[in-house]
Amino acid sequence: xxxxxxxxxxxxxxxxxxxxxxxxxxxxxxxxxxxxxxxxxxxxxxxxxxxxxxxxxxxxxxxxxxxxxxxxxxxxxxxxxxxxxxxxxxxxxxxxxxxxxxxxxxxxxxxxxxxxxxxxxxxxxxxxxxxxxxxxxxxxxxxxxxxxxxxxxxxxxxxxxxxxxxxxxxxxxxxxxxxxxxxxxxxxxxxxxxxxxxxxxxxxxxxxxxxxxxxxxxxxxxxxxxxxxxxxxxxxxxxxxxxxxxxxxxxxxxxxxxxxxxxxx
Length: 265
Description:
By secondary structure, the chain is an all-alpha fold. Helix content is 74%, strand content 0%. The chain has one domain (18-128, 140-177, 205-263): Four Helix Bundle (Hemerythrin (Met), subunit A) (Up-down Bundle), CATH 1.20.120.
């Protein structure tokens, strides 16, 4: 087997289209399923949950394809992260409107999710170099980050069950009068004039009147709650660690600047 020459490597690299790599095509498919789930989210909980779950499951497939086909790219990593953040945020926004008493909690979760991943990614690029992945965690980092990022099975399980927790809450917004602080609706007019629009708030109440069984969502919520809490703990830890890493870099830059000024003075 002959080794390709530098000219052949260069020609092959110019012919590659990163946007059409298999993992990125899977990423685009994830977006399609996520957008479709958002379309059905207000009124069709079963369809929405199915489409949203497929989008989440494809998250594992694109990573496996990237490793198998040697098509890991920075664009794919950013696309994956953006898709994760946006889909979770959209679901949390809906939950904030469905459970207004707890809206500040969901707003806090959105803020923590975005800020922790942004500062972690930025610190990795600024301090670790442009070629270092945000998933490469040093041994001196806290155990939670090492466990979360170094094992793909742990990473997938925690992310999947974290999403499952919020999907269960979403289903309970259609099935649990206890969480919704309302009594089960006995009867509703078939076609009130004020609810003529299928996307009105009244239409959402009509959808909730057609209750789905709450036993399964409650079970899913109980199973996934520990993983959701662990995911939020990891977010807090990586936010703190990335902040310390950036502050350390700032101190080193300031020290070098002082040394330069002392040498020139």
